[in-house]
Design brief:
The structure is a single chain. By secondary structure, the protein is of the alpha+beta class. It contains 5 helices and 6 strands.
Length: 183
């Protein structure tokens, strides 16, 4: 009887691991199965390509205003190597710049930890996709593998504002991602 319980426990553990690994390997399109590309563009700094970006959604229509209750994906394919530290620092800097109120140190420290789990050092050709899930937060995929889930909707809104807020540093890229005419 004890051997059967041990075997049953092992079987259940294996089943749970299989189910979790299937979710981890499903890719971001599993979260947005009917998503279509609204727009794309390229981020350049001093003429050098940093990444190409694609914006995906199930419900948005190109040129329409962005709605906070609509899920979407922002896929970045890097043209060059960038360290995780640089990705995190640049993101924090922009989140602070775009925040209407000053963000407290504790919150920014927590968001920094989340981003360090979500991001990796990238090389040319690597892809990181962030998926905004209204009411939930954000999911980050490296290639097709789920890297990290941030269960904080305020973080998700602040993070994606880097590209989608009208005050973004690159309004032309924003317009291209949303499928709108150039500003």
């Amino acid at each position: 009887m004890t051997m059967q319980k041990g075997r049953l426990t092992s079987l259940l553990i294996c089943l749970v691991l299989i189910l979790q690994s299937a979710e981890l390997l499903a890719g971001w399109r599993e979260a947005l199965p009917d998503a279509r590309r609204l727009g794309s563009g390229e981020m350049r700094v001093f003429g050098l390509s940093i990444y190409s970006a694609q914006f995906w959604s199930q419900r948005l229509i190109a040129g329409d205003p962005l709605d906070s209750d609509v899920p979407f994906a922002l896929e970045l394919t890097y043209s060059r190597a960038v360290s995780r530290d640089d990705l995190v620092e640049a993101s924090l800097k922009e989140i602070r710049r775009l925040s209407p109120n000053s963000l407290n140190t504790e919150l920014m420290t927590r968001w920094e930890r989340e981003m360090r789990q979500a991001f990796v050092d990238v090389r040319a050709g690597d892809r990181i996709t962030g998926v905004y899930m209204p009411g939930e937060g954000a999911r980050f995929y490296v290639g097709e593998t789920l890297q990290h889930v941030v269960r904080d909707e305020a973080f998700a809104k602040a993070f994606f504002a880097i590209w989608l807020d009208p005050r973004t540093r690159n309004p032309e890229l924003r317009a291209q991602l949303l499928g709108a005419a150039k500003p």
